[in-house]
Amino acid sequence: MPPPSENELEHLLKLAVTEPTERPAFFRALLDATVLILGDNEQMRQDGDITLNADTPVNIQHWEKQGGGNIIPFFSSLAALRKAVEGEQPFIALPARVLFEITQGADLFLNPKAEYGKEFYPEEVATLLATDGVTKSVERYVDKDSQILLGQPKDYPTAMVEALTTLFSQRKLVRRAFLTLMHDQAVDEQPNLLVGLEVDGDPAEIDALINEAANLASEMVANEEPVDFCLVSEKERGVSHYLITHTWPFYQRRWGSWLRDLIPSTTKTE
């Protein structure tokens, strides 16, 4: 629960700053939230409520950045707005999704001058609108005759691995997780990271977990390059065999969880 001084969006923003696993939840909440923007006195003279959509003409205040260029400030609450401006300022409340739609191509900043804030670049806004805040994983089938090169990355993605480890420890679906560098020369010019997951659970839950993990991993690597995921099984050859036999898992479910899987439950009867 957020403290009384924060609303839910501000609470999620605070968590997202330090916990990468919380960022998808923050982005989803932001798209569903109502935010405040600074308007002008002329528009505020209109009587009654104003219904805004992507086609509504709105005069929005822009602020100049210290390094040059402009941003559009927007705020998660009236308290956050009052921390950033002096005196009475006209403002408009509107859905964040509508704000992103009518300002496409502009830089925006959530809660400037607050302890926790975030700048949004045009490319990031476009991605949020296109994916509803979640980057969907894309399935790719590898032909059995394809020649795939596997090896270990020279520059180990420590931040990504730590973030995924935190996520997997929270979801409990993953038994083990492996990492390799994969190069399918018939498809990609450059190699890319591949995360192999040995999992238990319902297929729908597994798909949801992979989508969440892919979204998180792409944020944690340089230039947000894609990271591939695959399911690993000791019964399969190929990539599964390489990962299980020739690499160490970077994540392994705690031994206590393994014991619960191996020891059959018993029921006492009278």
From TrEMBL:
It comes from Serratia symbiotica str. Tucson. Residues 9-126 form the SseB protein N-terminal domain. This is Putative rhodanase-like enzyme, sulfur transfer from thiosulfate. InterPro entries: SseB_C, SseB_N. Residues 142-253 form the SseB protein C-terminal domain. Pfam families: SseB, SseB_C. Coiled coil: none annotated. The gene is sseB.
